[in-house]
Amino acid sequence: MANRENKLTGVQKAAILFITLGPDAAAGIIKKLPESEIQKITYEIANITSVRSEQKEEILNEFIHMNRAKDFIIEGGIEYARVLLGKALGPQRAKEIMDKVTEATQQFRPFSIARKADAHQLLNIISNEHPQTIALVLCYLQADKAGQILSALPEDIQTEVAYRIATMSNTSPAVVKEIEKVLDSKLSNVVKSDMTVLGGVQTLVDILNQVDRTTERNITEGLERENAELAERIKESMFVFEDIVTLDDVSIQRVLREVDTKELALALKGCSEEVANAIFRNQSKRAAATLKEDMEFLGPVRLVDVEKSQQKIVAIIRRLDEVGEIVISRGGEDAIIV
Description:
The protein is about 70% helix and about 0% strand.
């Protein structure tokens, strides 16, 4: 098997991994796999006569990195995983690992063909379905594609679908499979499903970040009438303190005119260097120096106090955005013309 590392299939790599782990550890893992996969892997194991030590090490490292990537994705999302892996392994290796993780995930993710389909095609297929059905399908789509579909729905349906996405949690495999059957007749594909956690506030926020401003405003206002507490949670999640780096310099300068220096010093404690630099470069040298001194003077502070200050500043940013004094860019259609 020399010089075949790059040509190995996933099943062959799994077989080598189980050989490397030994019978006890391998048995605990393999018994959890589908019967069809067990047959494929055991066939490969039976046909492998020898494995070189460097090949074992390479496949074991790949397994470790892929599992680490999955943990990072669960902890903070795909971009979070990409950044952390990039720091640990370098950008090229991180991309390779993330591509493999994404491919493995999508292979078993319901509605995989819908994720490949054109947004307009999907809109034509699901636009007349019940809002709960539309919400479920959108939860499985890429945020930008789901945003396009949500924007194209009638306004009264937009709010209803958005509400159902935000309040959705665990979904029965039977329900998912039944909806897949509807799409199967039109997209000619059925995807194996399992119990999964989907929907929720963050899913809706990701989608709303991709829609146009009119659609976003219509949905948030509709949700306020439906469930004020839920609407507030969504609005709070749509722009976080770290997103200050996405604002243009003029907008940051406008925000800084509304923020108390002491409040700003507390908010910047423990933030990323990128966020701090975005603030410092939009101040005069004297103001930036004063702010840095205030931050040092504060000493150790409680995380809860830092977060409260950050939330106050985010509230100012949201208010300025709502009255049109600054612009928070959301999605490709929210372009700025100067």
